[in-house]
Amino acid sequence: MGKSRDIEEIYQDVVEQLMANGIKVIACSTVFIDENKFNGSNEQYVKFNQTIRKIATINNIEYIDLYTILDKAVSDYGWDEIYCADHFHPKACGYQIMAKVLSDAIGR
Known about the structure:
Layout: H1 7-20, E1 26-28, H2 41-58, E2 62-64, H3 66-77, H4 79-82, H5 92-107
Parallel strand pairs: 1-2
């Protein structure tokens, strides 16, 4: 039986495959979610995001921190404006924020 691969190995392999095929890779963090509804999830998300940022740095690709961007949006406008009632899935406003950031990155 083979060794189980961790998220860092898998993510690195995907980035390498995309870059080998001439695809512009933009690494994105996880989204921000409500710690009150998903206890412990934000801690895990921070770890995932550190791994994603590390891979972006190693591969000299852009990293977009959607986690911090959406955290700020929730702080500025409130959960009900940015996320659905589950505080996990974005509403139109949340998607608009992400779309703007991502379209800017794609255009660079």
